[in-house]
Design brief:
Elements lengths: L16 H21 L4 H8 L6 E5 L5 H7 L4 E6 L2 H4 L8 E5 L12 E7 L8 H11 E12 L4 H13 L8 H10 L2 E8 L3 E8 L10
C-alpha cells in the first residue's frame, strides 16, 4: 500500500528515499547479517511483549518480517509496515503475518486497532521521532503496549557505528533512553520495563488509557 502525498500533516517533507533505496539494494543481506551479529534478540522481545493469541500487533519498520514471524508463532496477527519493498519481499510465515508498504510517521491506518507495536532496529532510521511516537500511539488501543529495541547512543561504540552507517547508508541518529522518555510521555505512554545490554536497550511502554489522541475523540 503506497501512502498518498509527499508531506507529513505539519508540512515537513518525508526523507525516506535514502533509507528506502539503501534497503532495496541490501535486502538479501539483511537477515544473514542480523543473525550473524545476534541483534534480532527475538527471545527477549517475546518475553517482554508477552503476546496473546487474540491480539493484533504492528511491527513498524519491520523489514523482512523476522520479528513478526516470531510474534505470530504465539498466535497474534502481525502487520509488518516498512518503506522498502525489497525488505517486504521476504515477509512470509504464518497466515497471520501481512506486509504493508508505508511510512511509520503517517501510516494510513485506523486509530486504536492494535494491541501492541514494535520498533526494533528502526527508530534511528526514521526522522521526526516525536511525530513517529505520536502516530504509533494513535494506532494503539488504550492500554496497548509499545516495545522499542535499538542501540543506545551513550556507548562510544554505538557513536562510531552511527558515524559509519551515516556515511555508508544514510544519515542516522541513535537515541538514549534519557532522550526518549520525555517524548514517550508526551505521546501518551507510561513506562513499563527497560532492559539494557552493553550496547542496546529494550523498553516497553503502555498507552495511557486515560488519554485519547485527537483522532480518537
Amino acid at each position: 500500500m503506497e501512502l498518498p502525498g509527499g508531506r507529513l500533516p505539519n508540512g515537513r517533507t518525508r526523507r525516506g528515499e535514502p533509507v528506502k533505496n539503501a534497503f532495496d539494494r541490501l535486502h538479501r543481506l539483511y537477515d544473514p547479517f542480523m543473525r550473524l551479529t545476534g541483534f534480532y534478540a527475538d527471545e527477549t522481545i517475546i518475553r517482554l511483549l508477552r503476546p496473546e493469541p487474540h491480539e493484533r500487533f504492528i511491527d513498524v519498520g519491520g523489514g523482512t518480517g523476522w520479528i513478526a514471524r516470531h510474534i505470530a508463532q504465539h498466535g497474534p496477527s502481525v502487520t509488518v509496515l516498512d518503506i522498502s519493498l525489497g525488505m517486504l519481499s521476504h515477509v512470509d510465515g504464518p497466515s497471520g503475518v501481512r506486509a504493508v508498504c508505508g511510512d511509520g510517521r503517517r501510516m494510513g491506518i485506523r486509530s486504536g486497532v492494535f494491541d501492541g507495536a514494535v520498533l526494533s532496529d528502526a527508530l534511528h532510521h526514521i526522522p521526526e521521532t516525536e511525530w513517529l511516537l505520536g502516530e504509533v500511539a494513535r494506532v494503539l488501543r488504550p492500554g496497548g503496549r509499545l516495545l522499542m529495541h535499538d542501540f543506545e547512543r551513550t556507548s562510544r561504540w554505538v557513536r562510531l557505528l552511527q558515524t559509519l552507517e551515516s556515511r555508508l547508508v544514510e544519515k542516522v541518529r541513535y537515541s538514549s533512553m534519557d532522550e526518549l522518555g520525555p517524548w514517550l510521555r508526551a505521546a501518551g505512554f507510561d513506562h513499563g520495563e527497560t532492559v539494557r545490554t552493553r550496547l542496546a536497550f529494550f523498553t516497553v511502554w503502555r498507552k495511557d488509557g486515560r488519554r485519547a489522541t485527537t483522532e480518537e475523540n
